[in-house]
Amino acid sequence: MFLFIKNAVNSILNFCFPSLCSGCNTILFNQELHICLKCQLNLPKTNFKSQDNNYTANIFKGRIPIEYANSYLYFRKKGIAQNLVHQIKYKKNLELGKYLGQQFGLDILEQIKNNPPDIITCVPLHKKKLKLRGYNQSESIATGISESLNIPFNPSIILKQTNSDSQTKKSRFNRWLNVDTKFILNPSFDIKNKHILIVDDVITTGATIETCGQLVLSQENTKTSFLSLCLSTH
């Protein structure tokens, strides 16, 4: 009887307040989760399966020695990926971030199986911004990746010590100027002899995640790899 009432209440709630697709804002069917089937089929996946013709990895060539780098989706203005990032970053849709991270993790299982990381972490927010916003969107993505890859996640390996302005509207050159020494390694954790995978929401110039990677590589016998939910090529 209780289960019948519960299902009836859920049906009424779903009718009155239907779940909407995070990609196109249409009503989701019962079997659809976060994203409708049409948007799923039209996700702008990069399909970077290796270092060959991998734009994300190529960004860092000659800049930092990484094991591998990958991005799940191409970020284009007014596109599906932009809508998804907006939902995660500004609408606190952390379940969507986790879901996409899980899908990304499943997508790269083959790529990393011969060189898996020891720990997954993410690009941090300054504690003031984290307190104001209440969450780090990259953490939700990294959590999903961690679950799919079955690799431990620690969001506190890298700390942000300067609360810099948003990078969103800065030029590529000014993004570089805005990063420099704004991150530090957390002295509470010893990452020597570890392979650290760093996750960000969007890679554009790669300046931010590269700075985090350089910190990891400053420790003895460490390796680093980069993942981002999206890659912006504009």
Number of strands: 6
Using only C-alpha atoms, the radius of gyration works out to 19 Å
Order of H and E elements: HHHEHHHEHHEHEEHE
Total number of domains: 2
**CATH class annotation of the largest domain:** Alpha Beta
Indicate the percent of residues in helices: 25-40%
Largest sheet: 4 strands, parallel
Q: What topology, given as strand order, has the largest sheet? A: 1-6-5-2
- From the N-terminal CA to the C-terminal CA, the straight-line distance is 56 Å
Give the low-confidence spans.
4-16
| Separate helix tally | 10
Strand content: 15-25%
Second-tier CATH architecture of the largest domain: 3-Layer(aba) Sandwich
Average pLDDT, to the nearest integer? 87
Tell me the CATH topology of the largest domain.
Rossmann fold
Shape category: globular
Descriptive overview:
The chain contains ten helices and six strands, in the order αααβαααβααβαββαβ. It is α/β, with parallel strands linked by helices. The protein has two domains: 42 residues, no CATH class; 190 residues, Rossmann fold, CATH 3.40.50. A four-stranded parallel β-sheet has the order 1-6-5-2, with helices on both faces. Strands 3-4 form a two-stranded antiparallel ribbon. β5, α10 and β6 form a beta-alpha-beta unit. The N and C termini lie far apart (56 Å).
From the structure above, extract its key features.
single chain, 234 residues, alpha/beta, Rossmann fold, 2 domains, four-stranded parallel beta sheet, two-stranded antiparallel sheet, 6 strands, 15% strand
